[in-house]
Amino acid sequence: MSARTAAALASLVWLALAAVPAAAQEQKGQSVGVAPITKDDPSPRDSALRAAVRTAVADAAAAMLPANHAPPAPAPDRPDQEPNAWLAEKLGADPFVYVTRFRIVEDRGRRPAMFSADRSVEFEYVVVAEVNVDLDAVRAKMEKLGLAERSARGPSREVTLVVEGLTSYKPLALVRETLARDRGVRSVRPVEFTPGRAVLAVDSDQDAAGLVAALTRRAPEGLSVVMVDQAPTRATVRIGWQPPAPPPTVPPTAAKPGTD
After folding, report:
1. Is the torsion defined by CA of 53, 60, 169, 69 positive or negative?
2. 67 within a domain of the structure (yes/no)
3. Is 37 in the same domain as 123?
4. How far apart are CA 111 and CA 36, in angstroms?
5. For the chain, which terminus, N or C, has the lower number of CB atoms within 10 Å?
6. E-assigned strands of the chain?
7. 165 with 220, same domain?
8. In this predicted model, what pLDDT tens digit does every residue of 81-124 receive, in sequence order?
């Protein structure tokens, strides 16, 4: 084979490879979806699956935020919503456009409501889904929104945080919100819910000890955190929750006679 022929073949191979689109960058993980069971929802199982996909997509988007980005405070009328719910709303109504594959790996079905944000709900439907998030699609949307992390960040590790002692959704929401506000934390994903217990996967620059120390130090009023067990990439904490007392109301001052 002549040098000219070899060069021509090499060029054809390069062009063929260049014509093949690069595979989408994906993030595969498990996500828990919870949907309240109400008479207005004919398929709470589908709603729970949608919630699981929405959470997986929002958590992937949260990992792209700049390190100094401060998430907005929850709306006063929705204090128990997911920490990344604001991101899910910005990404749009259909979370399925950001995933390549998804499936239910565990159908936990109907059970007494514990993690539904709506406290008036008596029962909820819970599923665990395996979701493949298209990170390229998420990043493209985040860049349009001006929210994508553009600077390189240091290496991270996944820490498994087991949270025990849960009596309602509120303390778990506070734990996730407090963790998400740490500059070294890129994402906080719930991977398991059982009565009184939740397991979170935390993508962080810190090890388990540093993560729990930061959580303990920044815990909001009424939330107590006690270390139960610890390893470099796994920790178990017990949570105590005492809602702060509402501020005292000041009765209106009675008008003095003759001042009308």
Report:
1. negative
2. yes
3. yes
4. 10
5. C
6. 26-36, 99-112, 123-134, 157-164, 185-194, 197-204, 223-231, 234-241
7. yes
8. 677 888 999 999 999 999 999 999 999 999 998 877 677 889 99
Residues 159 and 139 placed together within one structural domain of the fold: no
Strand order across the 197-204 sheet: 185-194, 197-204, 157-164, 234-241, 223-231
| Cα–Cα separations (whole angstroms), residue 60 to 3, 77, 140, 166, 181 | 49, 26, 12, 25, 15
Radius of gyration of the chain (CA): 24
- List Cα–Cα distances, 49 to 31, 132, 243, 253, 259, in angstroms: 9, 13, 31, 54, 63
Q: How many H-runs (helices) and E-runs (strands) does the chain carry?
A: 6, 8
pLDDT recorded at residue 58: 92
User: Residue 52 phi/psi, 5° resolution?
Assistant: -65, -45
Number of domains in the chain: 2
- Summarised one tens digit per residue, pLDDT across range 191-213 is 888 889 999 988 888 889 989 99
